[in-house]
Amino acid sequence: MTVNVFGAGLAGCEAAYQLAKRGVKVKLYDMKPQKKSLAHSSDKLAELVCSNSLKAKRVESAAGLLKEEMRHLDSLLVSCADKCEVPAGGALAVDREDFSSLVTEYIKSHENIEFISKEVTSIPDDEISVIATGPLTSEGLSEHIKQRFGEHLSFFDAAAPIVSADSVDMDNAFFESRYGKGDGDDYLNCPMNKAEYEVFYDALVNAERAPVHDFDVRDPKVYEGCMPIEVLAQRGVDTIRFGPMKPVGLRDPKTGHRPWAVLQLRKENAIGEMYNLVGFQTNLKFYEQKRVFGLIPALKNAEFLRYGVMHRNTFIDSPKLLNADFSLKENKNIFFAGQITGVEGYMESASSGLIAGINAYMVASGKTTVVLPEFTMMGSLSRYISDESVKDFQPMGANLGVLPPLEDRPRDKKLRGAMYAQRSLDSLDAFINEYNL
Question: Residue 397 pLDDT > 80, yes or no?
């Protein structure tokens, strides 16, 4: 049995390795070196196009826990990263050339992997395949995906920040849907009076923004639906009060009156541990997001699990299309992996390739696919990207907010992280032994 892997970035190389090490013949397709995206310059595989940092090393952190889980599952990418580490304080950073060279050497020398330099423009239905073509998927394949899945394909991120539920100051927030519609707790409202709003507004329109090179976020004909909140605010002091922050239909139980302006938070996952800032797509620099949005009284101590971003990024609407094993709901022979699924980050992409590779092997072997335990970072991310309750799906990176809450949750963040990590790794090791992974 031969399995196709389309794309030789981090996710594709990890998927190919997981298949090959289990004795499966792999055809690994990539455009390189014949053709490259605008962001790529090297002929090598697993090219790091942005930072050389793979985020925190501490296992008590979300990023560190993710990498440790991958080590337990014999990740090729983490192994190569460990061998190419350069000093970076508490982060795992790598020499990007050495890293790509090491991955390329291993992949191209493996007896079970055939590397094919070719642009793929369609997905075969009758072959087991892993689609890991990344956020800069070629125009031909993007068009095929668009034709096949219709509206379930995005070509840019327009993501609002996400905060942890327990960091919202409930003394300055209240649950209510506009005009009493819904279940009553659909939205968590963060009210402001006129003075508070004016301070917030002035900070918002003057805050420092991240550079955008690949599209114009101010173009109302194309991007009106994802207009950054700071750009929208520049149209006038009351523009966002009659838009994303409109207070109509709401009454603050503390005052008995309608607030001057309201930011609404919406549950980002079913268990309600994360909240999305509704209508707050933004291109502010990360530290500015924390500073400016922290001027909203309910968010003065908010813990940001994901900051807002605005950049080109091809990804599918995974909650509508994928199962938690990364297979297509309509065809269990086809798997997606990497940033095209809506996981955000180098190691998050590689981890999804790891799971997709294992499950493609399971299908090729006539076995039942697996979904990692919900207590693991990898398992929780796979559930997030396949959770049909997630609305307005946007990419997500590793964060402790996606994990099920601890039964006895300590206030100390380091202790809390250590408890999450221990629970995760214990459940993962038991899972590995049970399924002989």
Answer: yes
